[in-house]
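step 3/5: co-fold with flavin-adenine dinucleotide
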Amino acid sequence: MAVSSAYERLSAALSSHVRQDERMSAHTTYRIGGPAALFVVCDTISDLSATVDILQEEEVEWTVLGKGSNVLVADEGYDGAVIVLGSQFKNRTVDGSHVRAGAGSVLAVIVQEAFRRGMTGMEFAVGIPGTLGGALAMNAGSREAWIGGIVESVTLLVPGEGLVALGGSEIRWEYRRTDLPKRGVIVEASLRLGPGDIQQIRRVMEANLRRRRRSQPLGVPNAGSVFVNPEGDSAGRLIEELGLKGYSIGGATVSEVHANFIVNSGDATASDVVALIGHIRSAVEDGYGIELRPEVRFLGSFGLA
Ligand SMILES: Cc1cc2nc3c(=O)[nH]c(=O)nc-3n(C[C@H](O)[C@H](O)[C@H](O)COP(=O)(O)OP(=O)(O)OC[C@H]3O[C@@H](n4cnc5c(N)ncnc54)[C@H](O)[C@@H]3O)c2cc1C
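step 4/5: write tokens
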């Protein structure tokens, strides 16, 4: 009831696209996931604000999706609303040493823009798929650097409050997580970069890309690292040492290239991936007494313990 009423109200109120029963396999890099009850592409801040208000009033659960490169959606789908940031959230401006960009901007586009202008500070992010919003929500990065380290400010849409600007130091940046998604929808951010030597920036970016091509199963659907690395160790190393490379459940397989990646070998379901995650966690706990924490975000009902 709440969903159909929300659908009617959203369709009437917004210039943005509202769809029902949108298959999430089309919106995740895993190419997995059943339908979201509602799927809303918000092109403007006023549409986003109205969408959030209506969903709150109708008591329909909602979430924001970037490029779905870190998300596993349940086979049964998600009975709430998935919000995607559209055109107005892809703008960006460069002012001195700062790049200000909408949260729907593709991260790679910002990385390329910084490179073209000879601005240093984003080389670590080359090859990370997804949007700026997703990168901020996840504090995406490499072992050496992460996006939180270059954030000057973030603007959030906070339900019931409107737009709220936060300085970088007012945000809790942890390893592959932040408090941002709990606080609101990330709509924009300003990144602090420095003047650099374009040839040196190119060398670092190329080296990072080479390392990625060697160590990641590119070209097969996946969602990046499945687990965050335990302190002082590497989840991939632990999983590989247990001989789990190539281990499959249904269509989900531990990558032969990097053991911390689970790939969709063609017909994987979310249940296959979750079963494989469970198997790996138990094996690592039994073998090393280490509890691996998933980095991948789950959307929908999985009945996880
Ligand atoms: C091949 C491959 C390589 C990868 N390599 C890396 C890597 O080197 N380092 C790394 O850190 N990650 C890596 N990842 C994981 C992933 O790309 C990052 O986490 C990325 O930043 C997610 O961005 P996204 O737009 O796809 O977010 P999504 O996957 O769509 O969303 C991720 C989370 O962010 C939230 N979110 C998204 N946008 C917003 C918003 N505007 N406001 C509030 N919350 C929001 C979502 O609700 C969700 O909880 C890799 C993934 C793949 C497939």
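step 5/5: annotate
Helices lie at 2-13, 45-57, 107-116, 132-138, 180-183, 198-215, 235-241, 270-288.
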